[in-house]
Write a structure and sequence with these properties.
With 1249 residues, the chain is mainly α. It is 71% helix and 1% strand. The strands form two sheets. A two-stranded antiparallel sheet has the order 1-2. Helix 12 packs antiparallel against helix 13 and helix 24 packs antiparallel against helix 30. It is flat, with a radius of gyration of 44 Å. It starts with a helix and ends in a 14-residue tail after the last helix. 39% of the residues are buried. The C terminus is likely disordered. This is Nucleolar 27S pre-rRNA processing Urb2/Npa2 C-terminal domain-containing protein. InterPro entries: Ribosome_Biogenesis_Reg (IPR052609). It comes from Somion occarium.
Length: 1249
Amino acid sequence: MADSALELIRALKASSDPPSLNGPSKIQLAQDGWNNASLYMPNKAETVLEWLLTRLLKDKNKDVSTNPMADVRYWKLLNDILTSAFPPSSNTFSNPARIWMVPLLNRVPLAPMIVAFLNLCATNPESADRLHLTSLGLRSFSILWPLAAPKFTQDALLDCVGALLEYLSVLSCKPLLEGDEHRTALANFVLSISSSYRESLGNAAHKKKICSSFMQHHLRHWLTCVSLQSGDLQDDEVLSSIYDIGVDTIFNVDVLRVAYEQQAQTSLDSSLAGLMSQVPSIVLICLPRLFKSYIDISKKHRSALFGQGSKNIGITAAEQARAASMRFFATCDGLLRSTTNEEVWRTRLALLTIVDQEDLLSVSDDMSADVLRQIGELSIDSLSDAFQAGQSEMICVLLDTLSALSHIDYDLVPGALSRILPIISLVPNAMQSAIPYLGQLLSYHIKTRTVDTFTQAILTSFTKLPATTPTPQNTYQNASSSAVLNHRFLDQLSKAVHGFLTPGQVPDLTQSILRQLQSSLEDFEERASRTSKNDEGPRKKRKRERQSLSASDTDPDHAAVVFALMTSVAAVALTALPFNTVLEEVQQSVRSEIQEFYSKSVRGKLKKALKACLNDTSNVWGWQLVAISALRLRYYLINSSLVADNDTKTPSKLLSLLKLDDILPELRVEIYRTLLHEANVGRFAATTVFEDILQAIEKIGPTNKAAWTGELHRLSVDERSSDISVAGLHLLLDRWLPTLDTLVTPDQLKRLAELMLAVLPQESGSPSRRSQDALSLSSLFAKTLRNAQFWEMQNFRSAIVSLINEHTASMDNVQVQDILQQLLSGQQFGKGPNEEGSLQAVYDLLLYAPTEFLPRSVRTDLLKRALAADVTIGISVKGRDLQPEQQQRLITLREFMRRVFFHVGTVEHSAIQEYVIYLMDPPFSLTDDSSTFKHITLDLIEMHFRSLLSSAEKDKHAGIAKILESFIHSAAINAASNQSSSISSLREQSLVLLIDSIVDGYKLANFQEEVIQSLRNLWEHVFSLILSRMSALVSQETKETDLLSAGPVLNLWCRLLIFRRWLTIEGFSIPMFGQELARKFLSLKSDAAQDSSALPHSILAIALEELHTGKQHGEQLQFVVAIYLAFCVRSNSICRKDLDDCIISACKKLTVQDFSGVLNLVIDGLTKQGLEKTSLGDLIHLSGVLVHNAPEGTLKVTQEYVTRSLSLFVNVPLYTENTELANCALNFVAKYFNDRRYGRRKSLWLGHY
């Protein structure tokens, strides 16, 4: 270590390092000299800093092993010197060190060091040592940069930017994106260098040269950084600054003006083309953003970029900017033509979206329109290729692209209907993209009033389906699942036909639809006839003829598919025809044409199809599909009153076909629907159809997990599948429920009710993901039971009630009162009937039923049986743990009883007092401390309490006396002083409910002296027990855990204080526990206090109740306000609401003097301003609660307080300058005057607050 300044200077200027043999190195000497405070040296910082910078500059190109830039000691020393000279809180430009720092930086250039340092950091950038070195260096450069950058040349700045971009691209900006510890240092340096570069670039005279150099050397690294994404605000700012560096360089006005005037390919085009072959993914990510920036800059500087020369006469600058932007779009699209994949099309879609959003395409811009048309042609060709290859994701992207083109201009996609609709009609997994595109097409045809053309095009597209699927069955499945036949699109089409079809188009569209349907039927019949004749000829001849023609030309099944698809659209279009807009003659003519078509074609083909199916169902898939389509069209047309069909033979044939096992499930459902419609109009017996559906459900059994998606074409043809039963039941319950109630036999209704009872418990379990997305037997029955119309059906309701009576009748033999008396006395008793499972199913069903729909006699019987079932379950597990399934059964039974008692308004049964004791002291223990079970049980207990108390008012006090005696002698109450199990807590909560019921709903004078004495005995007994535990809580030995678990005891103690006032008990010394409890709670750690959110409410309630003891009244009022503020600081929003509720409850019981005293304490606290701002806000909130819930007779006190508060809020600057306090004050004022509108005029003199 150098002993003097002269020795240190000589050592640093020595020619060798270390200066002396085997001595310390120069950097070690410099570190020791800097850290040695006793070494006096004038301008020590300047001397050491100059040596450091000079050493770093001269040796920057050495090998890593000897390069000082790779030595962390140099950067640590440099950072220490700069931090001491320029503290973080100081201003760099006003710091005295700037006087000697700027000349030093002029002598030792900083830019070469930055470039060399960043190049060094780019090697192995993610190692921990290198990141630490980088953070030290960047912090140092961030301090030096504002002083050195003004002297940098533009080329030097560009070199720094290039080195930074290279480093960031190698590092992939991970410190920026992942929250690395070095992010701040790197982010600050990036922002500094970006600001200086952009400012210098704006003043540069040779921007074109800078742009050329940037694109030649730094474009790739810049695009790599731009391709990164971030969600953090700071990272967004940094990455945006990096992006602005490149945009300002390559899109500056001088460069764009030259490019526009020369109308030639720019260096950016060639650079992007080169990078497209090297790093296509990066270019694809950046292109849309570059395009958007080009548009913004062209619009912003359009006056400077686009002149008014002779060739631009009549063309505005805005139009020229749009044309230039479209030329840039054409350049971008040219880059994308080199390859074709999903990523390329997503980029093209993003570019087209920008064109659409910015409205760039001009009517006179034919060149750009040609480019877009080429994209449209390419999209259709690629869509066809993607369809052939089965690339569903690619199809979605291409459909989105076509949708964007159609939104820009519909004519950009020529022949869209005839070329695209056949493909969309066979794509089953592109709903998200196909439906919006179809909606786009439909919207265009609505605007042009050509909905008829669009409808005809859809029908025609079914005749041109691509032959890509192996069988007609696959074609039908795919087409039925496509967007064209999706119910959402068909609903849009129906509304468009009804709302936007012109009167003149109605007959033409009708004729076109009927003509295409007729042609499709004739084609099917011809093929079927040809196939039948070929099958009758010699085998070799048939084989040769079949090989000579393609399947799509000869296969009748293919023609059946076309007819089926046409029928689905035709049924929607025909039933939506706007007959109200056409003349009566035209309407009659159209109806006649439809009726004639139906009578001559559909009905005849339906009969042939049914005949073919009845003769042979194994090889007539096409005929079955024709029958499905014909029945569907028939149903639609008849339901819309477009045709009439009184044929009585068709239903009988359908019934015969229904008896066959191997017909298509979709045909079976259509037969169901047709026959139910016939039954509804009186031409067929509904019992036959219902019997078939009922047998199908009974066949699969109630426990079957069959599910159905709701689509008829997806019904499984597998005999083992059960979804056909779900489909039939859905049709029955969703559409024909009234028919079901009136036309089927009572026996069938009873069987359906039994199925409902057997299936329904599955709905109460946790359904699988599949059952949530699909229909099942249990979900259908549950939906029906929630339907109010169902419970208004007399026959079905009677069947259900009768079935419920049968399943619950066994409970009539249970003597509930005798069993409970034996249980309470400890005697042995026999067990009741074991029908827990069936009873739960019954009462599960009853929970769906509105209580008012049950007859009174039935309701009474079911209530008694639920009571018996509850007790039966309880005694069956006496002395054991209650299992979860048994607990669920009790929840179901008790919820039913709770609803019935609430509906009736009173509790009436023979074992009221015994049942209450049974509820409070159950014979079992709970394994799962269910809040639902406790909540329902406590509700029942409270209802029974109120019933017994009402009886006691009418001199029937035996019941309540027995309950009070049970509380006095209860072992649970005696044990409450030293344990807190779930059962004892249930007893304690019951006692709280009893006290609340008495205090809130009854007067002491209404009870006889015998009852009053029993109540006082209860209070004295419980008081003596709880007093000892309260004393233990406030003792010095109390543990933190004891206080945290003392909520129930505190709650009960507060009720005892309230009960004492109601009973007017005198002569007892009531200890004041409130202050000590508050002190102990506030001494808890904040985490523990947050976990015990119920304690503040209980302690505050106790403190408020202690006001009525008369001890130290004034001090107690102050204590109440003080602990309210203290609790608010340590409470969450839920706990604060509980505190407010406690204040509101106590307000109504305060005397005028106490209420006035509390308001005076509040106004004093607001006036003296000795509290923190948070507590002042809580105090204003408390005053609002008090004023809003003021007791009777305090109007004058309240008005005086409000006047003083308003004056305080206006005249004290704290309440107007602090935003939070001002908001609290305004909320107080708004709430007060909203409640008391008459008080507004009286307060207007207060400075117009």
